[in-house]
Task: structure prediction
Amino acid sequence: MARVGVFVCFCGANIADFVDVPQVVEEVKRIKEVKYAIEYKYMCSDPGQAMIRDAIVQHRLTSVVVAACSPRMHEKTFRKALSDAGMNPYLLEVANIREHSSWVHQKDKKAATEKAMDLCRMAVAKSIANEQLHEISVPVTKRALVIGGGIAGIQAALDIADARIPVVLVEKSPSIGGKMAQLDETFPTLDCSQCILTPKMVDVASHPYIELIPYSEVIELQGFVGNYVARIRKKASYVNFKTCTGCGACWQKCPVKVPNEYNCKLDKRKAIYTPFPQAVPNKPVIDAEHCTMLTKGKCGICSKVCEKGSIDYTMQDEVIEREIGAVVVATGYDLWDPKPYEEYGVGRFKDIITSLEFERMVSANGPTNGVPVRPSDGKVPKNVVFIKCIGSRDEAKGIEYCSKICCMYTTKHTILLHHKVHDSHAYVFYMDIRAAGKGYEEFVKKAQVDTAATYLRGRVSKIYKKGDKLMVRGEDAQLGQVVEVEADLVVLATAVTAPKDNPELARLLGISYDKYGYLSEAHPKLRPVETAKAGIFLAGCTQAPKDIPETVSQASACAAKVCGLFAGDTMKKDPMISTVNTEYCSGCQNCVKVCPYGAIVTDEVPQGHGSKEMRTVAKINEGVCQGCGSCVAICRSMAISLAGFTDPQIINEIVSI
Amino acid sequence: MKKLTYFPGCSAHGTSEEFDSTLKMVLKTLEVQLEEIPDWNCCGATSAHVMTENLAYALPMRNLVLAERLENDTIGIACASCYQRMKVTKVHLDANPELARRINSTIVEEGTYEGKTAVKSMLQFAYEDIGLEMIKSKVTKPLTGLKVACYYGCLLTRPKDITQFDSPEYPMSMDRICEALGATATEFDYKTECCGASFSISNTEVVENLSGKILEMAQESGAHAIVVACPLCQSNLDMRQPDIEKHSGKKYGLPVFYITQLMALAFGYPAGELRFPKHIVPVEGALSNIGKVVPAPEKVKKPTKAVEAESEDN
Result:
């Protein structure tokens, strides 16, 4: 005979103001299996939990019902109370009379009380059929996958690998380094970006615990936390990296010139190329779209000049698999295309460039050897107008959010301009100066004094051409006047946007993304690096725009999370999973089709006892099953049962009301 | 023969009479038959829509209801301002059936609004429904040598959500039509700047200032003339030009043509029929450029070296 204890919580005023708790207790006492029922102000408090523990022992309870808040809130707390009293924790049922009754029926106390009673009756009835369940232990593959080789991915990979955990770092372009490798100097200290980044890139390549897979993309992720299998497509590089020494003979002789992505297409690279001199790995790849040998079968010069015979025009894409336990996603960001700013003549005027183009020009290894020039005539500009918030904070043309880094890098650009062209003058059109960060405000103030740049608070409404100058017309909101500035060069601080491939990546990883395409964290404040899917973490701008210090911090946080996850040899998992009764299973495999986790496979069992004839049945991989119940619903022969939600439990609930 | 419902607007019978008459010539050549909306009324611009919502919608709506009786696909509107009021009304009424019902109840005796006729400016109709190929095929006297600055003003392509035609900031449809006629359209950054509009009457100084800048930029672009498709733009730029010149001390001498006048000229109509004497700024100087051979800029020939993969954006 079942002996159920019911514990009804006031939750302070949260429940008690709208549900007549003592009446609920009186009502449940009338159920014959209920041997004990009591109310208390805060069931989750220590005295509340003690009441449960004592009652279990004193009244020899066989199951416990707590009528309180959502099980998402305190199910774990109460399960632990049961354990502490020597009872199987899965003999607990939670009746959610707060979110499901008191909070949503605040205008009708009588109805809320009745609903709370119903919820309690259902929980009691269900608990009578509860069975003892035990946590499942799952082995863990202690290897991490890092997607993206920018500064976020590099930092995460190094930190994880330094903890002697193997890392697979997948980068889609031929070299790691990301956007940071394109920067000249970094705010607010004006450190040379390359000087602080390239040692880390070299560390990645030489680290014994890091497997670097460049020029590759993750195309599939199967499994679950601790036991993922990633499929990675290695794009054909047409160069054998094992024998190539990176001598450079091939790209020196290659006759095909292609716009150079690394320099924002301001100059040309060859069809066989390394993106930049400090590339890691420093091995070239052939751009199959432009190589005439691959497109037309004519040329073959690189193969002739390669002393090692490393060129292989027949190379194909290759798909490899890696078993991993956790994933860090660090796919970085894209920059917004300012084309919609037609009133500025974007696309018509060559002397309007983006900030990253300016950054490449002022870089010592850039297309103009570190001197900014006008793309139209190659002249060094004197008057340069910087316009911030291009696409950012612009609901009409761009996106609503602030891109966070533009105020600071534009300040940096005024300094770099001042350094490179001494008699130049910078004008900055801005909406606000957002300089929150260590040393940021000081940096802006100092730059304004040192460069004597003219800051104009207001938006630019039009740019037009007068002779070879660009006339920039905008508002000086502080003077309340329209101003026109004659510019040699205009630099647009374009918005940071999510990588365009993020939605597709999110789908294949099974994580969520927001309306802009940024990958979503599990909680905006308290779980900023986790995703909603266990074992997948986010670092850097793929989650939201951020600067380098913040990106590096988040990457290290990811590494800490991964190390924590891998601290034990096994992981505990809730036992609420499906099981197949092979006696009833007809082998229709409908469950295989509906399982969203790929947790169901097929198995062969003998037709009958001692029979040699075999038949197909479904088999659940208990490590993969998440207990969603889809297979239970689709099963025609009622052969599948979900622990904790068995048919007798559900039917008891229905019959009780 | 294509049929087009026609809404001339009040200026077609007065200040822009030459727009109306050349439009009719051009459309005849382009095999379009005009059917004027019977008993059309004022579109309400610019007083109605700043006064009452009901009047702002009811005036154009009556025209739209009358136009629907003619059962043509499209209404072509000559005046940019009339076009604006009619299109705003159509877009708002179509998106909001409740509003349409309410406004319709005030003009119930005219019939029920169904929203089945498209509303287009004559520029849009020429560009989208007639097409450059057709226009080109009718050209008998190409305007080669004439350089024009195409001025769209504020209403033909803006606001974008209402007009749903061409670029709101740097439109090119009129430029393309002028090129189809054989003329050269200059790169003209002031093509959508404000001309001062109806301040012409109440605050002429504003118009002289704003239109003055447009003239200056047009001249700087190397144009011999300005082309428009809006009666108010035409009158401000043409009629105020002598005063602008007097007050600024600069000389422009830029005639302001309706696009239909240039089309008619290129289609072979005699200049004497195109109502040029109505212009304040004489047109002869500009038109004398037609037929003059323009030397093509010498191209520097690149040595044909190895294969080079150029991308379009470079």
Residues 304-314 of chain B have pLDDT under 50 and may be disordered. Chain B has two domains: 2-123, 140-287.
